[in-house]
Write a structure and sequence with these properties.
The structure is a single chain. The protein contains 8 helices and 2 strands. The chain is mostly helical. The protein has 2 domains: about 55 residues; about 80 residues. It has a two-stranded parallel sheet. Helix 5 packs antiparallel against helix 6 and helix 6 crosses helix 7. The N terminus is likely disordered.
Length: about 150
């Protein structure tokens, strides 16, 4: 039987079980997170493409990435952004708008959870964009005319 015959019959990997595909995928996750303990959106996209190529769903790939990162204390950019978004919504809902100290606390957590891979200024701009996209109210102005939120990224 030639190599071409085996490819027509499903290839050399046709007998690979889903467990083996998941094991291989976990090794790829380790490889991507090895150097900086951080998986950015581009790396995650590449990993998810490989998960799909191995016969997994996007959801399975995302779950495996999240589980591995959590177990090792690694950061996943998408998950950090989701947590920050939830924190912004909670903070803005508690009062009549998002206050500066709440924003700063969420910003510090965002930078810290990224293992320093997302710089403070970049994180501030992303949080501002999320706040605006979500249509959250921001407490700004007041007696001394502070425009802290408007100055972000300016």
């Amino acid at each position: 039987m030639s190599l071409f015959d085996s490819m027509r019959q499903g290839g050399a990997n046709s007998g690979t079980s889903m467990e083996e595909a998941q094991r291989q995928f976990m090794e790829l996750i380790k490889l991507h997170a090895y150097a900086d303990q951080f998986i950015d959106r581009d790396e995650e996209h590449k990993l998810l493409q490989q998960a799909v190529d191995k016969g997994m769903s996007l959801e399975q790939g995302m779950e495996l990435i999240a589980a591995y990162a959590t177990s090792k204390g690694y950061a996943v950019e998408r998950l950090i952004e989701q947590r920050a978004e939830q924190a912004l919504v909670r903070a803005a809902a508690d009062k009549k708008g998002l206050e500066r100290d709440e924003f700063e606390t969420i910003l510090q957590a965002f930078v810290m959870e990224s293992n320093g891979m997302i710089p403070h200024a970049t994180a501030a701009i992303r949080l501002k964009e999320k706040t605006l996209k979500l249509g959250l109210k921001v407490k700004e102005g007041g007696l001394f005319g502070s425009s802290w939120f408007s100055k972000i990224g300016a």
